[in-house]
Each structure stands twice: as structure tokens, then as C-alpha cells.
Amino acid sequence: MSQVKVLIVDDEAEFATALSERLRLRNYDSQAVFNTKDALSIIRNNSYEVVLLDFEMPGMDGIEVLKIMKQTDPTLEVIMLTGGGKIKNVEEVMQTGAFDYLMKPVDLGELIIKINNAKKRRSLIK
Length: 126
Known about the structure:
Elements: E1 5-9, H1 13-25, E2 29-33, H2 36-45, E3 50-54, H3 62-72, E4 77-82, H4 90-96, E5 100-103, H5 108-125
Parallel strand pairs: 1-2, 1-3, 3-4, 4-5
Helix pairs in contact: 2-3
């Protein structure tokens, strides 16, 4: 099985960088970015399979970013992350096209299962 390409978008640079390193150690091709502008540019110019997207980002909320990402690549699977206890409107997030969501701190085992499931669903869509 080829490496899953994962983009981590979180303004908490230390968290995103550590998560990216932990995924790389488990044979995932991961990259971390710390703002929505860079994330959207990368999605337009690169092929990622799964995005881990922080729900609360400065400048643009996670639902807005999710909508733009899904317009750019409808097969892209996005897992929303939140540190605020819960996503304000889970229904809206899921209807907008998120694959799933997780609360921070992220359980790595649970995250890996969700990433693999997102990759499988994307493979069925493509």
C-alpha cells in the first residue's frame, strides 16, 4: 500500500509539527502548515488525499476552508480537529463534506483509523 498523503492545517505550530512527525514515523507522507492561506495554496497545487483541519483558525473558520477545499478537489477527505471541546455544529460540518471530526488532544490510534478509512472512501470515489 502506498503512503497516504496527509496535510495538517493547524495554527498551533508545535501541535501540527509533532503530529506530522508522528505520522511520518508510521509511514504517512505528511506535511504541516499553520495558516489557511498556505493550506489553500498547497491544496490547489498538490495532490493530497486527507486533510486534518483545525476548526478554529485565525482569519477564516474551518467550515469556510472546508468548502473551498471541497470545491478545489471534491474527492479530498477532510477530518476536522477541534480543541474547543466540541464543534459548534457537527451537522453543518458533515453536510459541508467533512469525512469526520476528532477532539484534541488527538488519540493517534483513533486518528490513524480515521485517516485509513478516509483514504479507502476516497479510493472508492475516484
